Amino acid sequence: MTEIRDPDACTTMVEVRAGVDALDRDLVALLARRFGYMRAAARIKPERGMVRDEGRKAQVIANAVAAAERMDVPTPIVATMWEDLVEASIAYEMERFDAGRANPD
Known about the structure:
Elements: H1 13-44, H2 54-70, H3 75-100
């Protein structure tokens, strides 16, 4: 197994790819946790109309862009990624909200 090295310490593409693959696994695990919070929100919110909150959406994206700026990550890319992530999260939360309140007939 290839050692996972800091990006600046990588000297081969094998090392780079190993680092990217490891990071992708971590990102998927973090997304699983994030979507767990979406399930919790769907369970907690009393009304379907509360699922979409444009103010909160703007705040989440702005927070991500600000963090990206501090870490010298391209902010337009982060803004686009977070727009997609938040919209996917809203869609998922809507599905879970509806499923949790479906008539069991």
